[in-house]
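Posting for a labmate who doesn't have an account.
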Amino acid sequence: MAVREVKVCLLGESGVGKSSIVLRFVNDSFKPALESTIGASFMTKRLDVDGVSYQFQIWDTAGQEKATFRTVKDWVRELKRNCTTDLVLAIAGNKSDLNDLREVRVREAEEYAQSIGAHFIETSALSAINVPQLFKAIAEELPPEDSISVRPGSTVHLRRHDENKETQTSCCGSKKSR
């Protein structure tokens, strides 16, 4: 069976559980005191969906401030403005096990996801709820390989909206001139 490589980049604010989702998906484990990601980390996992084998290359980026759902819209705008290839967007409402601390109503998140053509899935890396389903949904939404128009070596550069236009943040958080 041929293996289809899929690049996934997890974006979001610090503390929302991006690293925990990756750890749950790749190793089926959870660490309650996971240290914050510095720069980015990279892990892979193979998943078979409907007779196709997908090799997920998962980039877990370092979060910035802690503002969660409010900044998802900024991330999506930046992706759509800068990405020249086909995108599959999925929004994970992580920490669904903490329902009593909920800040975003499920309906609000679902409506936003629908408005941008994204999947919304509530997950819990702690209790392993819907984590594999998140990646399965991504795989099922991918366009056929023969319809993908990717330029070899193309890169998407993301920056925060409030970032000074004269500087660019490197992957490790330091500023450098453009």
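Reply:
Got it, the structure tokens are right above this. Strands lie at 3-10, 40-49, 52-61, 90-93, 119-122, 167-169, 175-177.
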